[in-house]
From TrEMBL, chain A:
Region (Disordered): 354-375
Keywords associated with the record: ATP-binding, Nucleotide-binding, Transport
Protein's name in the database: ABC-type quaternary amine transporter
Species of provenance: Pseudonocardia sulfidoxydans NBRC 16205
UniProt cross-references to Gene3D superfamilies, sorted A to Z: P-loop containing nucleotide triphosphate hydrolases
Single GO molecular function: ATP hydrolysis activity
TrEMBL record, chain B:
Transmembrane segments: 20-41, 48-69, 81-100, 132-159, 179-200
Protein name (Swiss-Prot/TrEMBL): Glycine/betaine ABC transporter permease
Organism: Pseudonocardia sulfidoxydans NBRC 16205
Topology versus the membrane: Multi-pass membrane protein
Keyword Transmembrane applies: yes
Subcellular localization(s) per the UniProt record: Cell membrane; Membrane
GO cellular component: plasma membrane
Keywords, sorted A to Z: Membrane, Transmembrane, Transmembrane helix, Transport
Amino acid sequence: MIEFRGVTKRFPDGTVAVDDLDLVVESGRITVFVGPSGCGKTTSLRMINRMIEPTGGTISVEGKDIMSRDAAELRRGIGYVIQQAGLFPHRTILDNIATVPLLLGWNKKQARERAAELMDTVGLAAEMAKRYPAQLSGGQQQRVGVARALAADPPVLLMDEPFSAVDPIVRETLQDELLRLQGELGKTIVFVTHDIDEAIKLGDKVAVFRTGGKLAQYDEPGVLLSRPADDFVDSFVGRDRGYRGLGFLSSDGLPIGDLPVVAVGDRMPTDGWAVVVDGERRPLGWVARGTGTVSEDALVPGGSLYDAGAGSLRAALDAALSSPSGRGVAVDGDGRVLGSIGADDVLRGLADSREADGVPGADTVRGADVTDRVG
Amino acid sequence: MNWVIENLGFIASLLTDHIVFSLVPVVIGLVIAVPLGWLANRAGFGRAVVVNLAGLLYTIPSLALFVFLPAILGTGILDPVNVIVALSVYTVALLVRTVADALEAVPPLVVDAATAMGFKPFRRFVAAELPISVPVILAGVRVAAVSSISLVTVGSVIGFGGLGQMFTDGFQRSITAEVVAGIVLVVVLALVVDGILLLIGRLLTPWDRAARAVAQGATA
Ligand SMILES: Nc1ncnc2c1ncn2[C@@H]1O[C@H](COP(=O)(O)OP(=O)(O)OP(=O)(O)O)[C@@H](O)[C@H]1O
Ligand SMILES: [Mg+2]
């Protein structure tokens, strides 16, 4: 647990970068600091490992005031990942990753073994071990940065816009892998970004900062979308928040409707649409009413699939909206067709979950103006 | 040519002197310039002072230095230490700025990341800033070594000029072969030392060449 209590940072030139911050970062979760440029995210993050010293208030990590600890030692127990990685250009990838273990006094062999293990963990091919950072792509360097931060197995990981310098596709892969890694490692992660979508995707909890270093709202992403505390958060969260908020609502209990299913070679449906499946009942595409038999050429590409076991209301709605027939294809965990889902079912499900106050973490919402926003 | 063959032993001893007189100061100068350059780079305002003071040293005519040093150091006027000290001063003068510039060019992001990983300043300097500065510092050392090899010859006015003795001696005794051989040897020595330093640099910084190759590939 990392606790900020009344933390303020006023720089010598008078800039107040962080103003009276009270916040508890929960252990084993990803907490995201998000907000517009200059709102004090980086300053807040860097105060945790004393790269910046607060001018007021206290910060404690696992109950211990960070100011009571030697700065260098504190830092060795806190992984740190930054944009563009900041790797040592003169050391090989393996030795870059082994840096902190070596600092902690491990012998070279142990440190390198550990580094090799981490290369595998973050998805770097073993043959990159002997290369230098300049010989890697930006995305690969970022992986090295993550591996380096994890090398000594610190309980806390600080990440300052680690993925913002890579292209959108690589960024998405890196985000997915961070989530996968976190599923295995359960670190206490503080992640800074100015990208609200990234915040919502990664954060177990999201702290929205406003300019001037003030905390505007600190909540689970679903709550942020459904109940922004004020106009600032509302506009920062951006357009489509209602739709995106569906991503945080479980689709448990949505009725799965019938769905005509045919195989290639069967008679064409005489009425409406049917889903064409393979021998494993996995969907191949749609066919519309016609004559003769179903052939591969007649297939109309389907929309997104809705995993009935794990999907959110958003996945269900998107499946319905993106399907050529107007009804989405619901599948099981193995991708086999279960039935269909309609947009109206999703909306009814949403109404039900509102009634049951199924908005995750709704009890933590603060601010009196919440009701007039949700209703 | 005959003169050279008849005096091989003499030439060899001058060459040895020359190497010692020119390269020992480079090593001493480098050892002094690194901490000074580090200091200059750290001290914002002090940087200009240190760098410019060092630069000023370089403007002292070498002859004057050779002549006045004994008075300052309390050494005999015919002590080879004078040559070593004088050339060390020049090396420091050359390298302080180079070291300060090289350290300044280390990416701040890398230094910052090192600090955040828990390096204390001295260890960080040895593990990161200094090795990353090697390519630039080494370029400065090559210049310092070559100019030191050439400056040693001036020491012949006080009798410790290494191969420079061959100029004065050959000139006084009108032995053209001796003068020519002296010049050729000084040039060859400079080229060989420069080549060796280049090689050492390559061995020390394989990463630098890797990075250059990538940069060239990117622009090609
Ligand atoms: N060393 C400093 N001296 C003075 N002001 C500073 C210093 N560092 C940051 N600031 C100011 O403090 C404020 C917060 O900066 P910070 O870097 O924490 O913002 P940020 O939220 O990380 O922004 P960005 O998204 O652009 O990275 C800004 O107004 C910035 O100009
Ligand atoms: Mg920042």
